[in-house]
Amino acid sequence: MDWDDAYANGPYIPGAEDYPPRWTERAENFRTAHAERAELGIAYGGGARQLYDLFQPQGTALGLAVFVHGGYWMKFDRTYWSYLAGGAVARGWAVAMPQYTLCPDARISEITREVSAAISHAASRVDGPIVLAGHSAGGHLVTRMICADTELPATVSSRIKRVLSISGVHDLRPLLNTAMNATLKMDADEARTESPALLEPETDASVTCWVGADERPEFVRQNALLANIWTGFGVRTRCIEEPGKHHFDVIESLADPESEMVRSWLSI
User: Fold this and answer.
1) What are phi and psi of 117, to 5 degrees?
2) Strand 38-43 versus strand 51-55 pairing type
3) Which of 39, 100, 127, 243 is deepest in the core (most CB within 10 A)?
């Protein structure tokens, strides 16, 4: 198995290089349009990247939705993804979009703790139920939040009702065999202890694992893996393979308040 190829998305997506500038433009436009109801760069810790943006709906929020970005724990920040708050905000939810210290400046276990801190901080600002979503590495991070060893306070974890992992990486062990591990700096122990698929969940939340049917086979496998294993622990899981979607466009539905993805996430 060529594990580098198995986790290489760009070479298999036509026009892959056009996506980041498109994300940036849409995100900037969204922030401009929602400037009166946005708080940008809220600190949840003392680190330079320990910040999140919070987008409020009209009126009192129904609850808190959190989106955690991907990029193999090595790339991107919150500013690329603002427009993905659009679906939940239009449905009356406040949306927090955190960023975190990137590898190699932080280990994945440290990133897990940062995301816990970001969610806890945002939860102190918004009342009501909490729903989590994350893409790719973000899918790993949001499912990591509901494992038995979560660092979320019980007052926060008990509010989490639904978790949406989009193209999530739930078993980190294959990444030990990739060139990117020179940056991730994982060892076998961390790969095991940070893999949601190898951990016991502790949650009453429902979990949806969502992947594009046109993604790399390894992402389709990772998607089904968590839903399969956690079903055995009694977690309410769904496994969805969306036709015609790849790794870069499967997240687009979060921007659409009428999409099945948003409706499923918010249980409308």
Assistant:
1) -65, -40
2) antiparallel
3) 100
